[in-house]
């Protein structure tokens, strides 16, 4: 090993160490931003080291320069633009697209490693096996992530899409992909077999995600994120790059843990989610109660809600996807700050899958400078509801559905926020339509619940204005 190669190894080890430290920091909302910066620093070291090493190894040929600089500029511009312009409600879609890019890129690297040697004797098993696995996993991730992004964006129906014999077709395609992969390894360099693996895996990715319902789409995105990590790790083995191996393993492990946590928060197994999801997604509707008998619903005005909040001692705010969709995080933060200044104890009850992904709601509220200590996770929030004067539910539905405590429905057994344990409940929602699980919520017709039918941002602005009048009176 030359001194330059030793330096490259040390830099890869340093970048990997920063990945580990950064990932550890991301465990808590209060340190997540720091962790993200640390991980980004590790990635910068890894990318620069790889570019310099590649140019030195290739002798600095202009084609290598053009490919590396062009790729870095294209990817950098796309990444910065998407990160700066994406709405918080569209983050899951962006994550899914990034999964597709990562999986597809890893598969492309492996395919090139398989084809380029051109040795009549073929490539070694230590290379061919990770290459085949990379093409298989990366291609599934690429096509599956694009379908998932389409479902989350509404381009593809959020309903489970299936057809007669779909599972048999899935099994057949999987068998074809595995058999072609085995043949590609045995025949040592048979490009045709690897192409069959590629095509079959792309089809399998589509068929695997189409049956996923709207409620399960974020879970499958997390699973595909784990697949991306595995594909990247396999690419690292294929081209003997330690940074890729370590980074891919970390992403794969983190994605797997996140997937299991999300499935647990929805009381569903990952296998059941893959076999067929539930939920159609909450359709957009005009403001006001519609589509349901409202005889048992108590409607409120902004003034009614303001009176309850101004004279309460303990208020718990339950943010949901409706808050995120309305981009009302700044309005709810303003209302909470006003109540706190008036002597009201205000906290936020955060469900693990509030919004569309774990941590999504925490990030959204942090964007509005809500202190982290005001955000209560599931267990702490449920303990606080027993002493809560008013639970203010904003655009949340399934995560506070009391029917989860009963058997025989789509949310049975799902851990929920016990908003119905509060002395009084106020729900801000555009209509009485069901959430992603597609079932009604008895909390909305509970005698102690009042419904304010309006867009979250408009409703919160009206409530804040009314509270100011009562406070100043």
Helix run count = 16
What is the strand arrangement across the widest sheet? 3-2-1-4-5-6
Structural class: alpha/beta
Quick one: biggest sheet? 6 strands, parallel
Structural description of this entry:
The chain has helices at 3-25, 29-57, 62-85, 91-115, 125-153, 166-186, 191-209, 217-239, 242-265, 270-275, 302-310, 321-325, 329-341, 360-367, 378-385, 456-472; strands at residues 314-319, 345-349, 375-376, 390-394, 424-429, 449-453. It has three domains: 1-85; 90-281, no CATH class; 302-472, TPP-binding domain (Rossmann fold, 3-Layer(aba) Sandwich), CATH 3.40.50.1220. The protein is of the alpha/beta class and 473 residues long. α5 (125-153) runs antiparallel to α8 (217-239), α8 packs antiparallel against α9 (242-265) and α13 (329-341) runs parallel beside α16. The chain is built from 16 helices and six strands. Strands 3-2-1-4-5-6 form a six-stranded parallel beta sheet.
């Amino acid at each position: 090993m030359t001194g330059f190669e030793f330096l490259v190894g040390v830099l890869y080890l340093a970048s990997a160490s920063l990945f580990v430290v950064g990932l550890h920091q991301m465990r808590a909302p209060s340190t997540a931003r720091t962790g993200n910066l640390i991980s980004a620093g590790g990635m910068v070291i890894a990318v620069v080291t790889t570019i310099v090493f590649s140019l030195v190894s290739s002798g600095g040929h202009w084609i290598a320069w053009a490919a590396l600089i062009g790729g870095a500029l294209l990817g950098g511009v796309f990444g910065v633009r998407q990160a700066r312009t994406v709405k918080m409600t569209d983050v899951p879609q962006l994550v899914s697209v990034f999964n597709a890019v990562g999986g597809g890129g890893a598969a492309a690297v492996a395919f090139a490693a398989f084809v380029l040697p051109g040795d009549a004797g073929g490539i070694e098993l230590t290379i061919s096996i990770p290459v085949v696995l990379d093409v298989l996993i990366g291609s599934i991730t690429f096509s599956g992530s694009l379908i998932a992004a389409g479902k989350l964006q509404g381009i593809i129906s959020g309903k489970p899409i299936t057809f007669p014999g779909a599972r048999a077709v899935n099994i057949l395609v999987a068998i074809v992909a595995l058999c072609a992969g085995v043949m590609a390894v045995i025949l040592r360099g048979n490009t045709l077999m690897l192409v069959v693996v590629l095509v079959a895996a792309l089809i399998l990715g589509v068929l695997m995600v189409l049956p996923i319902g709207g409620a399960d789409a974020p879970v499958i995105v997390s699973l595909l994120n784990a697949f991306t990590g595995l594909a990247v790790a396999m690419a690292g083995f294929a081209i003997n790059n330690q940074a890729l191996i370590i980074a891919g393993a970390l992403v794969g492990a983190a994605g797997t843990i996140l997937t299991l946590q999300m499935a647990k928060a929805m009381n569903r197994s990952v296998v059941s989610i893959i076999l067929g999801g539930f939920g159609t997604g909450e359709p957009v509707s005009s403001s006001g109660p519609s589509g349901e008998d409202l005889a048992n619903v108590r409607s409120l005005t902004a003034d009614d809600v303001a009176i309850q909040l101004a004279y309460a001692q303990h208020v718990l705010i339950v943010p949901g996807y409706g808050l995120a969709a309305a981009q009302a995080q700044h309005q709810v933060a303003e209302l909470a700050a006003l109540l706190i200044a008036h002597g009201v104890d205000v906290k936020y009850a955060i469900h693990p899958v509030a919004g569309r992904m774990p941590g999504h709601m925490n990030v959204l509220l942090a964007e509005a400078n809500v202190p982290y200590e005001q955000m209560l996770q599931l267990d702490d929030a449920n303990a606080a509801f027993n002493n809560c004067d008013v639970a203010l539910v904003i655009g949340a539905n399934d995560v506070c559905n009391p029917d989860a405590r009963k058997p025989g429905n789509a949310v049975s057994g799902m851990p929920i926020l016990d908003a119905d344990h509060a002395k009084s409940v106020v729900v801000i929602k555009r209509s009485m339509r069901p959430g992603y699980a597609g079932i009604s919520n008895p909390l909305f017709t509970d005698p102690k619940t009042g419904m304010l039918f309006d867009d979250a941002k408009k409703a919160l602005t009206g409530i804040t204005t009314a509270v100011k009048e009562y406070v100043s009176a």
